[in-house]
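Replying to the earlier thread about multi-chain prediction with a worked example.

Input:
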Amino acid sequence: MTVIVFIILGLILIILQATVLMLNPLWVAAPDLYYILVAYLAYRFDLVRALFIILPLGWMLDTVSGVILGTYPFICFGAFFLLRFMSIKMPVRESLYQIPLVGVSYLVVCRIVFVILDFLNPGTLVPWSWPEMFVRALLIILLAVPMFRFFEFVNQRLLRSFSSFRIMRVRSGNRYR
Amino acid sequence: MRKRGTRKSSRRFRTFRLVLLSGLLLTLVLIVLVSTLGSQKFGTFHKLAFETTGPFLKVFSGTTRYFSKITDQYIALVHVRAENKRLWDELQVCRASAYRNREAVATNVRLRKLLDFKKKLNLPMVSAQVIGKDPSLWFRTVVIDRGTSDGVMKGMPVVTDSGIVGQIFSVSPNYAKVLLAIAPSSALDVLLQKSRVRGILKGTGSLTCKLDYVLKTVDVEKGDYIVTAGYGGIFPTGLPVGVVTKVVKKPRGMFQEIEVSPAVDFLTLENVQILELERSFAE
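Result:
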């Protein structure tokens, strides 16, 4: 259930990003909300459930954006594994570092993906622009806190509804079965 | 015996006093009544009574007036509030209506232009609406609300009354993705309208394009119009593409560096036309 809800949430974020937040096809100040969701999944979800959410998220992004299929799954999985690795293996798992880390990882992952895509498909991508990417990273950092809170709220509600369902379940008297 | 006689005389005296007092009062009342009703004169008694009741009247009426004023003001305030709310609601409705009307007029003008363009071009076309924009900084595409069920195929040209928008890049039954002419991966076969020299128009990702493969020997000037060449069979010939905004002839190399401003305003793209040409790029 949590997986389905978060997939729907991801879809809504993509739709928001491609419609309301993009005022024109060249608009820069549109936050990559999907990336915040990926970061949240990396920090809070277990591997299997997170991958089940990220895979359709990447596909959906590929359909509304870009001309090279696989770009977004590449970004999403790259970001997910990078953040997960950093949060487990490095001292940056403290929540104080988590938010700036989202922005920094965004720049790192995007740069790596861009270099690879540009190498494989020369002349297909709009030239890399640091100011524009910094604007996007800044927007991600600014929105990460409220978005994380919102995702946490949704996740907690889903967990609570599940636990109440378990309590309501009628059990048989046979304890040894 | 003597005591009983004294008591009897005092009772008689008291009765006499009472009768005398009553008679006197009655006489006074009669005098007042007769004098009042007879001469209709506002006498001393009246004045005295008037002066006595006057201040009470004044205070009472003042107090009443004060409270009445407060009540009136409060009621008026309630009415004013209700009236204010009603007028605000009315204003909101009027504003919304005016906004809708303005929007309808703008849409009408836009669609009329597209219709005129459709009639002028006399080619089979499908109208579509832009429903999404590429959120990425690296690509320049838009999503439209027409797909294969409307006859749209990959490679079909997308235009507006102003000129070339791009090409259908990918398509599903009801939706399609359009690669904009300003995208770096877009390349259009075009002509300089004046000199009829051919070139390839490539997007830069910004609001300008560059015209490649135009020899230095060709006379190109700022303000020259660029139109579609129509050689590949994808675009019909002569559709407006843009205007030359900058020409640079470097000492090295064979070709000129030509900057072109697209004819279409990509920032306000809402409705587009898809030219249903027989041969699509995919075929």
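The mean pLDDT of chain A is 86.

Feel free to reuse this layout for your own posts.
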